[in-house]
Amino acid sequence: MTENETIERIKHRMHTVEQVAGENGMEDLEMAIKALEEVQQYRAIGTPEECRAAVEKQKAKRPDGGRDIDGKDYLICPNCCAIVADGEWTAKFCPDCGQKLDWSGEE
Predict the structure, then answer these.
(1) 27: number of CA atoms within 13 Å, CB side?
(2) pLDDT string in tens for the chain (107-residue length)
(3) pTM for the predicted model, two decimal places
(4) Which of 40, 85, 94, 98 gets the highest tally of CB atoms within 10 A of its CB?
(5) Can you give the residue ranges of every domain in the chain?
């Protein structure tokens, strides 16, 4: 059962609870609905693991040493191994995974 289905079932049964348990019972159900709605908001943002990964990508990392391919030196993303520099262009973020890159100390 999804959160939406649970919320709808609780709302549908709230009129019965009020008659049996009084207003205190209603407050409990309203609190349960609010908690389920908060869970939905957090899921829309992403899982904690996804949020941690996004934060980690914002920490600048130095590209890995050059690879000599066809006489050109390429620098590689430390996260996904994509090419992030080729002597003619340099990316601030990896074009494949979005990892922020640290170019301090580069000539």
Answers:
(1) 3
(2) 888 888 888 887 776 766 666 666 678 788 888 998 988 888 888 888 888 888 999 999 999 877 666 767 788 999 998 988 877 778 899 999 999 999 887 65
(3) 0.54
(4) 94
(5) 3-45, 56-107
Beta-ladder partners of 93? 100
**At which residue do the structure tokens 């407050």 appear?**
27
| Length, in residues, of the chain | 107
Query: Which residue bears the tokens 């640290």?
Result: 102
Strands (E), 1-107: 64-69, 72-76, 83-85
Cα(94)–Cα(100) distance, integer angstroms: 7
Enter the tokens of residue 103: 């170019």
